[in-house]
Amino acid sequence: MDYLLGLISGAVGDEQLARMIFLSAIAMSAMLAVATIGLLAFGLQSPVQRRLALIKRGHGSDSNIRPVGNLQLLLERVGQRMAPEENAKSSETRMLLIHAGYRSPSAVQVYWAVRLLLPLILLALAVLALPLLPKSGMTLSLLLAAGAVGVGWLAPAIIVEKRKEARMTRLRTAFPDALDLMVVCVESGLALPQAIERVAEEMAVSHSELAEELALVNAEVRAGIPAAQALKNLADRTGLEDLRGLVSLLSQSIRFGTSVADTLRIYAEEFRDRRTQAAEERAAKIGTKLVFPLIFCLWPSFFLVAIGPALIGVLKAFGKL
């Protein structure tokens, strides 16, 4: 407390005014904290509010659903202030989370709630850590607070983006194998929806994410959605640009009655060639990436072992002179 009071007094220049500002800030913070905790506790513990929150999430009954914790409901209610429901289905944030594998109806609200609350938590921790830093002035304190807020705001976005890239890479790697299996299933006499279902069952262990996406396609087809639209939804969920061309060709094959197996075989070969080229590209970069470990780790040790004894001998010789 004395440390924060000293910072405010140094910035204002008047000790009495600094005390008034400090006490006013503490009083307002305490009132806001008590009011917020009280409202949240009442809203989460009230059966009516909890029931309304579950209905908004799409659960009409409490049977056969996973129980929702108070923390998740809290994050959803906080995130609703930043992400309106009418724009949640078509927003860029929604598509980013779907590409990263978060398909929950409340994913957008939870994402924005985390991006809002995490900077505040890190800012509070930074303020509490300021007295532990020796000789920290006003400038360093402001920089530390700004850094905490920046890290808290950017960290969730970076994590989601990395998860999206990793998931798209796994899907891109698994698609040639799935197309090969589809070719075998279609040529054996199965229709395209049945072939997709069979491939989803076979790949449930080796490529669970792609199997889940194919199972969703089959579920949409069974629900009455046209196969072309279900495949288009698959391309939108995965975010793979190469898959959009395959969806267009499959839609044309279904519409005009051409061979679906030939289309799948051609795209399977193209996907496999691209996967091989990507592996060769990564292998070609290994030599360049190894330069820096060699320079900073291996070469100093090599020079120390190779030249060290000779250098010691030279120093001994000149020392005797």
Mean pLDDT comes to 76
Main beta-sheet strand count, sense and barrel state: none
Q: What structural class do the secondary elements suggest?
A: mainly alpha
The radius of gyration is: 30 Å
Strand elements, count: 0
Give the end-to-end Cα distance, rounded to a whole number of Å.
66 Å
Please work out how many helical segments DSSP would assign: 14
pLDDT < 50 runs, ≥5 residues: 59-68
Shape: flat
Element-level helix/strand string: HHHHHHHHHHHHHH
Estimated helix fraction: over 70%
**Percent of residues in beta strands:** under 5%
Subcellular location: Cell membrane
Membrane topology: Multi-pass membrane protein
Keywords: Cell membrane, Membrane, Transmembrane, Transmembrane helix
Domain Type II secretion system protein GspF: 179-306
Index terms:
321 residues, mainly alpha, 14 helices, 80% helix
Q: Would you write up a description of this structure?
A:
The chain is an all-alpha fold. It contains 14 helices and no strands. 80% of the residues lie in helices and 0% in strands. Helix 7 (138-187) packs across helix 8, helix 8 (192-202) runs antiparallel to helix 9 (208-222) and helix 11 packs antiparallel against helix 12 (260-284). Mean pLDDT is 76; it is low at 59-68. Residues 179-306 form the Type II secretion system protein GspF domain. The chain crosses the membrane at residues 20-42, 112-133, 139-160, 290-315. Keywords: Cell membrane, Membrane, Transmembrane, Transmembrane helix. This is Type II/IV secretion system protein TadC.
